[in-house]
Design brief:
Layout: H1 2-29
């Protein structure tokens, strides 16, 4: 359960990071 929770948190962080980077890139282009 602990490892699974850690994996889910890691994936969530990667997804949030990708979204934030995408928004920053879009903002820079605009």
């Amino acid at each position: 359960m602990k490892l699974n929770f850690a994996d889910d948190t890691f994936v969530l962080m990667l997804n949030l990071g990708a979204i934030i980077i995408g928004l920053i890139i879009m903002w820079l282009i605009i």
